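Please describe our next protein:
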Amino acid sequence: MRVLMLSSTFPYPPSRGGTEVRTFHLLQYLQQHHEVTLVTQRQPDVTDEEVAALEELVTELAVFPLPMAKPSGWIVGKLLGKVVRLLGAIATGIPPNVRCRYSTKIQSWVDRRVRDGKFDVITCEHGVNAVYVRPAWRRRVRTVLNAHSLSYPSILSHLRVGAAEQPGRDRLYLATVRRYETRYQRQFSAAVVTTPDDQREFIALCPGVPVHIVPNGVDLVRFPLRAADPGGDRLVFVGAMDSTHNLDAAKFFVEEIMPLLRQRYPSLQLSIVGARPTDAALKLGRSPGVTVTGAVPSVVDYLHQAVACVVPLRTGFGIKNKTLEAMATGVPVVASDRGLEGLSVDEPNQPLRALRANTPPEYVDAICRLIEDPALRESLSRAGRSLIETTYTWERAGAAYEQILINKC
């Protein structure tokens, strides 16, 4: 099978972010059995060595530059630019985050290759790439949207909990985002999401498109099981700290939960581990017991040293890599409904695999239980790792994705 994968984000190395990790591992699986052509865009921080390494992993790699941003000049120019972007979004139905990455060179390249019959199936890795797919292509090639996560419900949830970085802007563009996801996603032969919640949201937006669930996986070599329970009172939160949902989660935990915990355990420490911390994220490091590390050589080291990994997300849809990876390493997880989305961790008649908490008192209770109860930590460690090994590997995810691409689901 000849597969064309469209990914505006550069999926190498497989540690840049959730979208890149998923794209990389699915690509890697498909290349073992099929001919994969990857079309992607090069961000400024991508090195020549990374391009060369990715090229070795696919049949063909086509790398295009990101469109050049036009300078906006003084304040008047910036305000005018915002008005132009808003009017452009309304007129075209394409949100600014899609329009700013759209490449006419990619469009021409893909149009020509599809016209020449070079591919059997086209996948769009994330909804921002849907703009390149022509509705008429469904008659000559299978088109699959790997949505990763949906923007419209995610933006709504950000607004509802006050996590939006620019709420006024997001409200202005909300209708355009919904219009885009409805218009462009309905033209695919099939769609793929990571959780039942996302499946329901997709069906509500685009009824009539077959929607399949393929969860994420974990690289069990990169995230090995810890050798021993460290005990103690170290906590860890993992996530890229320029993402609004991670920043909101960390801020919520530091401001509303840490003071309560430190009343019980004055020496309790929280490490916020993640690349690209914003000024707001760095400010959290001034709170008692909190360290903001920035990028680290090994996230696993921090996970292995922690008595618990906290995932206090209040917004964002889709399955969470950070939760899966923590469970893979054997560190007990305390997480919110959003942090545990798509995972069966506390169902009746099943082993308890993680502790659920959504309010400060629930977090305090769960974390105190873990600190005081080695047997509970050991039980969660074994059950969590077992769940990942049996259900959430990239081999299983890749095989499921392959079946959808060849239309056997």
Observations:
- The first strand starts at residue 2 and ends at 7.
- The chain has 15 helices and 13 strands.
- Confidence is low (pLDDT under 50) at residues 71-76.
- The two ends are 16 Å apart (CA to CA).
